[in-house]
Backbone:
């Protein structure tokens, strides 16, 4: 379903010393430093799998998601999703994926949520019948019926996140990318979101790739974990594999993760 | 097209959430260009003509340019504010939707408040029509329409060029406002008033003169060469290089992500 081989992504970052003098110098000759956001990344994900994609800030998680969702083109390597190369067949590819960026909204700010949904129906050219079915199901599972007619700007973060997730599933994609979906949510909303994702995966066999810093998300949702640091895939296994690496199975998950970061010197 | 109308309906509904702000801006926009008009009016009180062009003729010129500019702003404004779309990640969102990028950027904004300016332009235009002494013919009427269309295309071209360059700078490029706002302000008078350099520049580089000056000469009867009527169409070719810059920008964006 998702096949990634030797993926590399390099950014050019301009560097300069502090101070006016170097700022002036920098105006004429820029010095670039190459930063490897992703190096030789290879993995594959089967249909219906749920994968937790973790790593410290700046490890390359978002870059990977952006490449897989067709926003970025990598320098090297291949990536085939549902038989397509995302950045070569962008429109066909994105019809079959859903993307949630936890920190950014895709809903129109000033109009009721249902209006955003209606517009998405036309953007994705969803048939009326399929739209009604998806909507009914999503409204039930995410308990949206009371907030559908509220403008997005008046929703609480938890309500909004539920709507964001619904918005990215209206066209019934086979793959769902979730970039920090529980960030900033309260306990009740977090549980609701997790619960929903789990059910969605069970019922529709939706493949889910989830990045998060919240280890409880990982524990509740994913059987498989990929740990990435400095652009490299360091570990690919279950939660227990992760714990074995550190050798302290009694600690809480955040401590396990911190110990791992230390072990791989990626913090 | 149907989808575009849906987008517009969302924009209108969003706008109506802030009714007071909307109407104040609308009125503000009207008066901004009204003040430009006053400037012209008082100038012609003193001098009867500028380089052989009368008050009415210049007013005609101004109303056409203003009309084209405000229409371009109403529909293509999103390109003019593209640095914001990149900055807040909206462009990433567009990339994960199965629709053309130009279409999505276009549809992402619909600047209703600019109707204030458009209204001003229409009022001036009608005023010149009624009181002016242009002798109308079928070809001249068509020429006026071509002038407006050509103007919209050239202005949108500049907006698109601006957006394309945003991929490289990621900041607003205020210097391009010299061309857009400048052209709107200086468009009050036929371009030749500003001397040969400006005329050449706006003929061959940024083709303002093609939709303003030359067809205008034909309409007021200063030049009988009917070739001048189709020059606005030639001016629309300006969109081609602008679109190329935009494409290059998009390609750069997907390879750098910044």
Residues:
């Amino acid at each position: 379903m998702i096949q990634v081989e030797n993926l590399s992504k390099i950014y050019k970052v301009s560097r300069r010393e502090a101070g006016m003098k170097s700022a002036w110098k920098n105006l004429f000759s820029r010095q670039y430093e190459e930063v490897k956001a992703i190096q030789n990344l290879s993995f594959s994900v089967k249909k219906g799998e749920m994968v937790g994609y973790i790593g410290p800030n700046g490890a390359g998680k978002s870059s990977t998601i952006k490449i897989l969702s067709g926003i970025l083109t990598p320098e090297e390597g291949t990536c085939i999703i549902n038989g397509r190369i995302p950045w070569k067949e962008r429109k066909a590819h994105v019809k079959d994926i859903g993307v949630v960026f936890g920190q950014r909204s895709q809903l129109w700010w000033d109009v009721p949520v249902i209006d955003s949904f209606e517009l998405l129906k036309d953007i994705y050219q969803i048939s009326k019948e399929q739209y009604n079915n998806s909507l009914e199901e999503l409204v039930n599972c995410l308990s949206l019926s009371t907030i559908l007619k509220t403008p997005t700007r008046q929703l609480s973060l938890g309500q909004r996140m539920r709507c964001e997730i619904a918005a990215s599933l209206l066209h019934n994609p086979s793959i769902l990318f979730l970039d920090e979906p529980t960030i900033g949510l309260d306990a009740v909303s977090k549980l609701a979101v997790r619960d929903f994702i789990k059910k969605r995966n069970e019922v529709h066999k939706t493949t889910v790739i989830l990045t998060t810093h919240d280890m409880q998300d990982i524990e509740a949702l994913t059987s498989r974990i990929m740990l990435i640091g400095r652009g490299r895939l360091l570990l690919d296994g279950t939660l227990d594999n992760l714990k074995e690496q550190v050798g302290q199975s009694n600690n809480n998950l955040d401590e396990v993760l911190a110990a791992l970061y230390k072990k791989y010197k990626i913090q | 097209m149907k989808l575009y109308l849906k987008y517009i309906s969302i924009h209108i509904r969003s706008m109506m959430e802030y009714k007071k702000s909307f109407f104040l801006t609308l009125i503000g926009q009207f008066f901004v260009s009204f003040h430009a008009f006053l400037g012209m009016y008082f100038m012609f009180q003193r001098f009867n003509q500028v380089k052989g062009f009368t008050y009415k003729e210049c007013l005609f010129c101004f109303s056409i340019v203003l009309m084209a500019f405000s229409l371009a702003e109403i529909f293509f404004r999103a390109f003019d504010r593209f640095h914001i779309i990149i900055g807040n990640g909206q462009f990433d969102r567009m990339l994960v939707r199965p629709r053309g990028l130009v279409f999505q950027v276009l549809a992402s904004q619909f600047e209703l408040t600019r109707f204030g300016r458009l209204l001003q332009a229409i009022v001036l235009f009608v005023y010149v029509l009624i009181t002016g002494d242009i002798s109308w013919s079928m070809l001249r009427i068509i020429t006026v329409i071509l002038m407006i269309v050509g103007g919209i295309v050239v202005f949108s071209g500049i907006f698109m060029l601006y957006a394309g360059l945003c991929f490289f700078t990621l900041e607003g490029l205020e210097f391009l406002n010299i061309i857009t706002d400048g052209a709107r302000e200086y468009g009050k008078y036929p371009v030749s008033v500003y001397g040969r350099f400006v005329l050449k520049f706006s003929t061959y580089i940024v083709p303002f003169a093609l939709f303003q000056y030359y067809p205008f000469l034909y309409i007021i009867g200063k030049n009988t060469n009917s070739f001048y009527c189709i020059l606005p169409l030639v001016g629309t070719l300006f969109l081609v290089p602008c679109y190329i810059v935009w494409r290059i920008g998009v390609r750069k964006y997907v390879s750098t992500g910044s």
User: Anything to note?
Assistant: Chain A is about 40% helix and 25% strand. The CA atoms of residues 113 and 148 of chain A lie 5 Å apart. The two ends of chain A are 32 Å apart (CA to CA). The longest helix of chain A spans residues 187-204.
